[in-house]
UniProtKB/TrEMBL annotation:
Oligomeric and partner information: Heterodimer of the IorA and IorB subunits.
Binding site residues for [4Fe-4S] cluster 1: 531, 534, 537, 570
Cofactor note: Binds 2 [4Fe-4S] clusters. In this family the first cluster has a non-standard and varying [4Fe-4S] binding motif CX(2)CX(2)CX(4-5)CP.
Enzyme nomenclature, EC number: 1.2.7.8
Protein name: Indolepyruvate oxidoreductase subunit IorA
Role played: Catalyzes the ferredoxin-dependent oxidative decarboxylation of arylpyruvates.
Catalytically driven reaction(s): indole-3-pyruvate + 2 oxidized [2Fe-2S]-[ferredoxin] + CoA = (indol-3-yl)acetyl-CoA + 2 reduced [2Fe-2S]-[ferredoxin] + CO2 + H(+)
Listed GO MF terms: 4 iron, 4 sulfur cluster binding; indolepyruvate ferredoxin oxidoreductase activity; metal ion binding; thiamine pyrophosphate binding
Residues reported to bind [4Fe-4S] cluster 2: 542, 560, 563, 566
């Protein structure tokens, strides 16, 4: 008897990969895709790893596929940009064992620096895309994606979104079925993409996509649901759920394969409904193709936004003219994001602000250093960009200009792509100061390990990559390790290193306050008799500190982690460290 469980979409994707017989998985954590790999790592039959970045993860999956087994990699939408180089070529080489890339888009930018539609990248790369609409389909589509991959000799993308990745649904668990490994045979014409071979493989890719488009109309993951023929929707993914909720009697063409599109099926559906809407989040990928085929009655982005996340209420408003009377956000106090109590990044940013130094920032929790009350980060572009940005500034404006600047980057992000940027600074004889915020984890995505933490995705203890030694091995003479919570030493080191006429690295070390196993034996406690009401301790914006009506400071000991930052900023000895519970 089969078992049924309620699973997150990401957990269901992992289950589908397991049932499909995947043997190798690689990924870099990125919300909303992270839980796919975390769930997959629980299956002993699957080798799963954290790679330093998405490009490497994709190349690992390609290597496993070429060796003849089913493989996968997982990433968020911006990670696909990093992986694009191997992906575009993998479309040419094709596969031996099935290969699937799980890519999670983030409509609404809940945890991303841009909105990006993976379907657009896939069209350019000539890679097919399947898109489930609930957890059950997430599992089944993952299995189907491997079948498509092997049938059409191509990597396949399974596209998900934040809402689907983090929603729960009932999933039927089935047995794992592992296909036989495909015996390896040397085939340089297929797998060695020198120009002469690539020219021929391009023709193969075009023929494959054409054949797949012809077959798509009869694929079981594309289906027409005919109900009221006065109105019809072409949709896919989580948007399908919104259509069914808001307009349950409408006819729906639900697309599971969103690249290439099933032209014949779409034309048949369009001919049968009076009014036709195309309801798709983000870019008008389906809409543009449908209208290019001459189906002019289709209505899409004329009434639906190209930005943000869709909802059933959006559909009710734009199609049915119903206004939403319930506005749950009204009257709710604004809660801007803020660094956690005891976060070592707050201490570093406090030192930078006191020294009036600007920072080129990177992707991570420390992006919050851009907002009040810290306000020291002036740029955030992408993973690893802080170091390259600082380098560009120095080459544009000279050494003196960047004496009031630093680059800040986390330890995981440094291992992701920051290392290459630092190599570039060394190679091109740059000056400037790079601060590596080493909190011993990949904090923003939920505390995943990486090469410098000494633990794998499977939880195995392995040798740690030493970030200080790595920097010194590049030939950087001035590499300084400092306790991130030691304000006096931090200010001293930052002041010295930013004035140098050569490249320097500061490694500010202190673990993330939310890491498991990190204990906080002390609490900070104010002495109201000594408090001068100056507010110096409030400037870093720790949420554990508040000002009372009389102007003195209160510290919520249930929130305080005893980092001592506020105590160091108080010139009047009005804050003491005490043992927790005293």
């Amino acid at each position: 008897m089969s078992e049924k469980r309620i699973l997150l979409g990401n957990e269901a994707i992992a289950r589908g990969a397991y049932e499909a017989g995947v043997k190798v998985s690689a990924a870099y954590p990125g919300t909303p895709s992270t839980e796919v790999s975390e769930a997959l790592a629980k299956y002993d039959e699957v080798y799963a790893e954290w790679a330093p970045n998405e490009k490497v993860a994709t190349e690992v999956a390609i290597g496993a596929s070429i060796s003849g087994v089913r493989s996968m990699c997982a990433m968020k939408h911006v990670g696909l940009n990093v992986a694009a180089d191997p992906l575009y070529t993998a479309a040419y080489t094709g596969v031996r064992g099935g290969m699937v890339l799980v890519v999670a888009d983030d409509p609404g930018m809940y945890s991303s620096q841009n909105e990006q539609d993976t379907r657009m990248v896939a069209r350019a790369a000539m890679v097919p895309v399947v898109e489930p609409s609930d957890s059950s389909e997430a599992k089944e589509f993952m299995k189907y994606a491997f079948e498509l991959s092997e049938q059409y000799d191509t990597p396949v993308i399974l596209r998900t979104t934040t809402r689907l990745s983090h929603s729960q649904g009932l999933v039927e668990l089935e047995e794992r079925k592992v296909p036989d490994d495909v015996p390896y045979e040397r085939d340089a014409a297929k797998y060695v993409m020198m120009p002469g071979n690539a020219i021929k493989r391009h023709l193969v890719v075009e023929a494959r996509m054409k054949k797949m488009a012809e077959d798509a109309s009869s694929m079981p993951i594309n289906r027409a649901e005919y109900r009221d023929l006065s109105v019809g929707f072409i949709t896919s993914g989580i948007a399908y759920q919104y259509v069914r909720e808001a307009m349950p009697e409408a006819s729906v063409l639900k697309l599971g394969l969103v690249n290439p599109l099933p032209k014949k099926l779409i034309e048949e559906f369009a001919a049968k409904v009076d009014r036709l809407y195309i309801f798709e989040e983000l870019e008008p990928v389906i809409e543009e193709q449908v209208k290019a085929w001459g189906i002019s009655k289709a209505v899409g982005k004329e009434i639906f936004t190209i930005q943000g996340e869709y909802s059933a209420n959006l559909l009710r408003e734009r199609v049915l003219g119903e206004k939403q009377d319930f506005h749950p956000e009204e009257g709710v106090p604004a809660r801007p994001p803020i660094l956690c109590p005891g976060c070592p990044h707050r201490s570093v940013f406090t030192a930078l602000k006191r020294l009036k130094i600007r920072a080129a920032g990177d992707i991570g929790c420390y992006t919050l250093g851009a907002v009040a009350p810290l306000g020291v980060i002036d740029t955030t572009i992408c993973m690893g960009a802080s170091i390259s940005t600082l380098h560009g500034m120095e080459k544009a404006k000279g050494k003196d200009y960047i004496k009031n600047w630093v680059a800040v980057i986390g330890d995981s992000t440094f291992m992701h792509t920051g290392l290459n940027s630092l190599v570039n600074m060394v190679y091109n004889q740059a000056t400037g100061t790079v601060i590596i915020l080493d909190n011993s984890t990949t904090g923003m995505t939920g505390h995943q390990d990486h090469a410098a933490t000494g633990k794998t995705l499977k939880g195995e203890e392995v040798p740690m990559v030493s970030i200080p030694n790595l920097c010194r091995s590049l030939g950087i003479s001035h590499v300084t390790e400092v306790n991130a919570f030691d304000q006096a030493e931090l200010e001293k080191v930052i002041r010295e290193e930013t004035q140098r006429e050569e490249l320097s690295v500061i490694i500010a070390e202190a673990p993330c306050a939310l890491l498991k196993g990190i204990k906080f034996p002390n609490k900070c406690r104010p002495d109201t008799e000594k408090c001068k009401k100056c507010g110096a301790c409030l400037k870093p914006g720790c949420p554990a500190l508040t000002r009372k009506e009389d102007g003195t400071i209160a510290i919520d000991e249930t929130m305080c982690n005893g980092c001592g930052l506020c105590m160091q900023l108080c010139k009047f000895d009005a804050i003491k460290l005490v043992k927790a519970g005293e």
